[in-house]
Q: What sequence folds into this?
């Protein structure tokens, strides 16, 4: 049975709690004072970047804080951890995330903020004011452990992250099959990404290589939250210029993502940012095997035409188990729905048909979600009224939607 893997930070939580209850040596019993300075703008940007993984209801109270430690800021919810460089900060302290972020939003960015922690007391001061908070001992915060990498690669971050993000909507939302609640990344000379919820699936081959040993890892399943947070970091984090010898290297390296994969997690690094996440344990379905051979019937449809027609019949369809019926012949498609109480509605649109006439019934919600935002021609491939319907659009993922059975 598939189970959730422990994150690199979660594995150390029990150890940290046990250590906290053990008698400490005399040197550590006296509260040590940590004093450091940081520019408000830099602290504000760092906390804003890593803030989404600060839990609102933490399993450990100290996780409501951001850890500042020797030139870095860190936040974690025990499933995902993120660090960002904070140059010039020396020492270790825990800063309550929400109250301090609310405070520094209203302090000029150029101000120098003095941070002092002694025991569980945190004091902040700047040229025009000061503030005090109750916090937690630095030792209460679980340490970050990076995954033991089995596979490492430098990839095009824009391509990989946008492709992973395009799969999120096809993941399952309920937990009966955990392997379907994340996006599967198939490793190799041509990386493939796939996701499915049992009723529909998406599949895509990327111009990205993540080579692996012959007997090494072949795939990993990345949680949705990790993908969405990585996209947040990739979009918001500053891109620092790497130290390279030529302009060509400088330009080509700015979009690179350093990826490390292991049984116990994933680490992604770029610029001043690093993210560590657990992976979903288990074996994913063989998504590639689920893709049918090229269907004998191809229907070429202008996506906005089909979307408008489906929206017209949506109200009636939703009253009848969400079923929308598509039937095509002689260059036209009839889009219809039949309600429970003899209500019916239909619309006709022009299409190009390669193959025989036919019909199929689909879930109106899934069809509209697929068509959203598409402005050109969509190809609908049909094998039979009971086989998965294959959709293609430009460079978007290949999508399969299971048909619905009707009388």
A:
């Amino acid at each position: 049975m598939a189970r959730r893997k422990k994150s690199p930070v979660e594995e150390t939580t029990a150890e940290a709690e046990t250590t906290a209850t053990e008698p400490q040596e005399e040197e550590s019993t006296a509260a040590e004072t940590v004093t450091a300075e940081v520019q408000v703008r830099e602290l504000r940007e760092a906390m804003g970047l890593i803030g989404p993984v600060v839990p609102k209801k933490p399993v450990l109270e100290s996780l409501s804080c951001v850890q500042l430690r020797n030139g870095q800021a860190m936040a974690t919810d025990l499933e995902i951890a993120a660090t960002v460089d904070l140059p010039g900060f020396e020492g270790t302290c825990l800063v309550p995330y929400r109250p301090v972020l609310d405070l520094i939003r209203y302090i000029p960015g150029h101000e120098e903020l003095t941070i002092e922690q002694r025991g569980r007391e945190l004091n902040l001061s700047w040229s025009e004011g000061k503030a005090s908070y109750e916090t937690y001992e630095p030792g209460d915060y679980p340490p970050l452990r990076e995954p033991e990498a089995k596979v490492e690669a430098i990839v095009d971050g824009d391509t990989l992250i946008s492709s992973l993000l395009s799969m999120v909507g096809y993941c399952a939302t309920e937990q009966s099959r955990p392997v379907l609640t994340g996006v599967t990344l198939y490793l190799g000379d041509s990386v493939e990404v796939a996701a499915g919820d049992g009723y529909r699936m998406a599949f895509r081959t990327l111009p990205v290589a993540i080579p692996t040993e012959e007997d090494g890892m072949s795939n990993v399943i990345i949680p949705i939250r990790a993908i969405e947070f990585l996209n947040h970091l990739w979009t918001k984090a500053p891109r620092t210029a790497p130290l390279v010898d030529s302009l060509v290297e400088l330009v080509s390296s700015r979009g690179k993502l350093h990826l490390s994969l292991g049984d116990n997690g994933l680490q992604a690094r770029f610029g001043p940012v690093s993210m560590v996440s657990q992976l979903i344990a288990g074996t994913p379905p063989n998504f590639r095997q689920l893709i049918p051979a090229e269907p004998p019937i191809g229907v070429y449809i202008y996506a906005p035409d089909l979307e408008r027609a489906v929206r017209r019949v949506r109200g009636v369809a939703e009253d009848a188990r969400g079923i929308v019926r598509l039937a095509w012949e002689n260059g036209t498609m009839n889009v219809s729905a039949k309600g429970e109480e003899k209500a019916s509605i239909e619309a006709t649109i022009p299409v190009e048909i390669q193959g025989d006439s036919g019909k199929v019934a689909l879930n109106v919600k899934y069809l509209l979600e697929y068509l959203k935002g598409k402005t050109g021609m969509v190809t609908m491939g049909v094998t039979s009224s009971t086989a998965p319907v294959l959709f293609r659009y430009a460079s978007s993922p290949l999508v399969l939607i299971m048909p619905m059975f009707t009388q």
Remarks:
- The CA atoms of residues 71 and 87 lie 5 Å apart.
- The domain at 31-140 is CATH 3.10.150.10 (DNA Polymerase III; Chain A, domain 2).
- The chain is about 20% helix and 35% strand.
